[in-house]
UniProtKB/TrEMBL annotation:
It comes from Cyclobacterium lianum. Residues 19-181 form the Outer membrane protein beta-barrel domain. Keywords: Signal. Residues 1-20 form the signal peptide. This is Outer membrane protein beta-barrel domain-containing protein. Pfam families: OMP_b-brl_2.
Length: 201
């Protein structure tokens, strides 16, 4: 299943990139592909963690995207990103969950001006690895876990701004809709903010 989703996403990105070479937009520049990355601030959210001291954990994300205009003010942008999520717990051993994902968003952008755009869309996140870590006696200890769901489906919403010479900035929020843990009814979800900088070609 993972290989199929990855293959399908690469096909979509390749098709849009090929189309983008000859498509231009009068308001917001031209279609194309690019690189984007930045900082992430994630936590676990849900009714079943209200009694725990979970806090935001800083991670990062980086990857590629293809942006294809379908009108003067609208574009479709699939992407492929490596993303580090998880949570932090303010306990005696500074325990934390480190979850590594391959994010596959498909964003629909509306360009209000040449620079300002709003976007939203679905996202499938494939789990690449998951570990729990803790600090004790000056050392960091980690152990792998298979308790995390392999697929995290969710939504992405955000605000972007296009700068000259192909540069862009954006802030977004990831709303995870699939429980973090498998084989349980625990109401726990991956949710967090991303601040990104990118360049289009």
């Amino acid at each position: 299943m993972k290989k199929f989703i990855l293959f399908f996403s690469l096909l979509v990105a390749g098709a849009l990139t090929g189309q983008a070479q000859d498509t231009t937009n009068g308001n917001s520049g031209k279609s194309g592909f690019g690189l984007r990355g930045g900082a992430s601030l994630f936590n676990w959210s849900g009714e079943d963690i209200s009694s725990n001291d979970y806090t935001n954990r800083v991670g990062f994300h980086a990857g590629v995207f293809a942006n294809s205009f379908v009108g003067d003010r609208f574009s479709i942008e699939p992407g492929l990103y490596y993303s580090v999520k998880g949570t932090q717990n303010d306990d005696l051993v500074n325990s934390r969950a480190v979850l590594n994902y391959l994010d596959l968003p498909v964003l629909f952008r509306f360009y209000a001006t040449e620079g300002v755009n709003f976007f939203a869309g679905p996202q499938a996140s494939l789990l690449l690895g998951s570990t729990f870590e803790a600090d004790a006696l000056g050392n960091t200890y980690g152990w792998e876990t298979d308790a995390i769901n392999d697929l995290d489906a969710g939504l992405v919403v955000g605000l972007g701004y296009n700068l000259p010479v192909g540069l862009n900035l954006q802030a977004s929020y990831d709303l995870g809709l699939t429980p973090v843990f498998k084989d349980t009814d625990a109401d726990v979800y991956n949710r967090g903010f991303k601040l990104s900088a990118g360049i289009s070609f």
